[in-house]
Here is the input.
Amino acid sequence: MNLERGFKRITLVLSIVIGLGTWFLCFVFICDSWDRERSIYSRYKKDYDNISYFWEVWDANGWSGGKRSIVQHFLDSKDYYYFAPFEIGGETVYLNGRAVFPGINRDMLDLRLDSLDEKAKTAKEKALKIAKNDLERHELWGNKELPEIVSLSILAALPAGVMVFLIVWFFFLLLRWLIRGFFSDTHETCK
Here is the structure.
């Protein structure tokens, strides 16, 4: 019986199975991360579009009831931490008062219209900047298509699979070296 040859075969099968398993797990992790990033990107894209549309309508004075009523609408939506409903593009969209109108407060209701517009201009710039930064942060992975992600996943997971394959062989060689240290180099018995 040849134990070393048997252990080499076991190590080969084990290293292939563990290497392929590692490769597959890395592949799935990258694809899952991409799917999550794409979902986040889509949400931020929609938020950015809604905020942009809100401010376009604000600048055109297109909200019914006037600008003060819009501020009041945000403030009435449960202390403006929650989302206020607006009609955008034929559908009801819920906008966060703090995200759309940063710095909004009850004092704005008492301002003159030109002062309110100044505050709104500052809030608009800040809101669009924040929304754009959020969008750009996820743009790299959010815009990638499935074939590109599959190719990247295969290439990125390949080194991990190869590394684990080599690590299993390293442990085999280390164990073999340690075991051989207990045997004598010659077949003579101790005198």
